[in-house]
Amino acid sequence: MANYIIEGDTGPWELVIGLEVHAQVTSNAKLFSGAATSFGAEPNAQVSLVDAAMPGMLPVVNGECVKQAVRTGLALGAEIHRWSRFDRKNYFYADLPQGYQISQLYHPIVGEGALEVQADEKNPDSAVRSIGIERIHLEQDAGKLIHDQHPTMSYVDLNRSGVALMEIVSKPDMRSPEEAGAYVKKLRSILRYVGSCDGNMEEGSMRADVNVSVRKANAPFGTRCEIKNVNSVRFIQAAIEYEARRQIEVLEGGGAIVQETRLFDPDRGETRSLRSKEDAHDYRYFPDPDLLPIELSDEFLSECRDSLPELPDAKRARYAGLGVSAYNAAVLTAEVETARYFDAALDALARPELANDAANWVVAELFGALNRIGANVEASPVAPAQAASLLRLVADGTLSKTLAKQVAEVMFETGGDPEKIVEERGLRQTSDTGAIEAVIAQVLAANETKVAEYRGGKDKLFGFFVGQTMKAMAGKGNPAVVNELLKKALG
Amino acid sequence: MSVDLAQVKKIATLARIAVSDRQAEALVPELNNILHWVEQLNEVDTEGVAPLEAVVPNRTRLREDAVTDGGIRDAVLANAPAAEHGFFAVPKVIE
Lengths: 491, 95
What we know:
The complex is a heterodimer. By secondary structure, chain A is of the alpha+beta class. Chain A has three domains: 5-300, no CATH class; 310-425, no CATH class; 433-490, Arc Repressor Mutant, subunit A (Orthogonal Bundle), CATH 1.10.10.410. Chain A contains 15 helices and 16 strands. The longest helix of chain A has 20 residues, at 233-252. The mean pLDDT of chain A is 92. By secondary structure, chain B is mainly alpha-helical. Chain B has a domain at 5-42: Orthogonal Bundle (Histone, subunit A). Chain B has three helices and two strands; from the N terminus they run αααββ. Chain B has helices at residues 5-14, 21-39, 73-77, and strands at residues 83-84, 87-91. A two-stranded antiparallel sheet of chain B has the order 1-2. In chain B, a hairpin with a 2-residue loop joins strand 1 (83-84) and strand 2. Strand 9 of chain A pairs antiparallel with strand 2 (87-91) of chain B. Chain A: One of its GO terms (biological process) is glutaminyl-tRNAGln biosynthesis via transamidation. Chain A: GO terms for molecular function: ATP binding; glutaminyl-tRNA synthase (glutamine-hydrolyzing) activity; transferase activity. Chain A: Heterotrimer of A, B and C subunits. Chain A: This is Aspartyl/glutamyl-tRNA(Asn/Gln) amidotransferase subunit B. Chain A: Residues 340-490 form the Asn/Gln amidotransferase domain.
C-alpha cells in the first residue's frame, strides 16, 4: 500500500496525509466541571456554570481525564510528559461561551509515539508500516449549534461544552487513503481496548481533521489543505481521494494550492473551501492563568501502566502462538468485545491445544448465529463457558461435528447448556461397534446391487454407504468408527 | 517591540472590541508605553533561570470523576438575551 500513486497528465503524484483525531475521553464528568458527559440528554441539561463560562467560575481538572490521556499515550508507546500545562486558544464563535478553548499547545501531556498499521490484518503477508504519533493533548469540546430550527436564529446546546477530548496528532506519515483508513481503525481499536474512548463515530466520539498534500516522487512536501471534522473511515478515505485529485488538477493547470480549511460533503463526495476571514487562525495562545501545571507522580504513572489491558497486537501474537490462524486472530482481536468473549471461552476451555477449534467455532458458528438473530457478541445467548463445554464435547468424541452443529442450534435458541441438551435429546454420538455393525449389515443387505458395484471397483460408492449408515443412525454414529467398520464389512 | 495603528485595529477586531479611528490612534502610544515598560525586564540577565510558573509553589489538584453539577438549565439560561426550547438562541451563524 506504500506504492499508492495517482497518475496525472504530468506524471505520477504521491499523497502525503496526516491526521488529527479528536477522541472524546470516556469519563463521567467533564474536563473542568462536575457536569455529566452522557450522550443524548435534553439541551443544556448537562451544563454547569463553568461550562457556560459565567463570570468568576474556575476550572478544576478531572483526574480521570488526565489518567485516560496518559493510558492512551502508554498504549501507543508514547513519551509521557511528567509536566504539562493548559493554554488558551482564543477565538469567538457562538458554540464557545468562554471565547477561548482550553487546550495544550506548548506543553502537551503526551509526546511522540507510533502506531503499527497493516492495510489488511487478516492477511499475514500484508506489509506493516509504522505511523508516527506527534503528540496527544487534552482539550475541551465546544457546544453544538443547530441551524435548522428557526429562520433567523441558531440554537446553542452546551451539553458538549467542556467535555474532555484527546487530540491525537499523527506525523505526515500516511501515503494512501487505505493507510489512513487502517490507521483510524487501529487507533479506534486501541482506544476501545484501553477504554479511554468509546470510538463511536456516529455519535461524534471520534472525528478527524485530515491534512492532505500531493507531491512528485522524492519532492519536498507540497502545500496542504485541512479537511475538518470527518466522522467515518469511509468518508476520510473518500475525502482524501477527492482532495488529492483536486490538488493535482489545480497544480497541473498551472495553479498553486492555497493552505486552507475545507469541508467534506458526504452527499456530493467532494471537499469545498470554508471561506473564513484571513485572521481566523490568529489564536493568540497563552498559558491559562486559571490552571496550575499538571505534574504526574510516579504512583500516578504506575497506576496508569498497571491498569492497561493486553492490547490488540499482543493479543494477536498470543493467539497465533496458540495455533490460531492469522485470519481468525485478526477477526477475534479487531473489536475488544469479541476478544473478551474468546478469552473467556479459552479460560473456561482450559485446553490451549483446542484454541484454533475454538477460534473457528467463534468466527464461523457464533458470528453466523449472531448475525442471523441480529445480536452483538455481548448479548450472545451462548455464554463463553457454554461454548467451551460444547467444544469439549466435540474434543472428547461425545459429539461429532454434525451433532455439535445441531446442539449449537438448540443452544442459540434456548440458551441451554450443551451437556443437558445432549442428554435430553439423546444426541450423544455412539462408538458402540456392535450397534454400528448391526446397522451396517442392514444397510448392505438393503443395497445388494450397490455392494456388488462397489466390490466391482466403483470406489466412489463408499460415501453412499457412509451416508446411509449415518442416516439410519440419525447422525449419531462416530464417523471414524463407521468408516472403519464399513471398510471391513465391504472389504 | 511596538505596535502601529493597523496592529491596534487588528487586535481590537480579534478581541471583538469596537474602537473608533480616533480611539485607535490614541491607543497606539498608550499600548507602546506599556510594551516599552514591560520590555525593560529584558534587560535583566535570566540565563539559566527557570521560568516561574506560579508565584506560590503549588501543584494542581485533580478532581474526582463524579457528576456533581449540571441539571440547572434555568439558571444557565437565566441571563441569555434569548432562549427558546431550552437552547440559547443567537443570530444565525452559518459558515
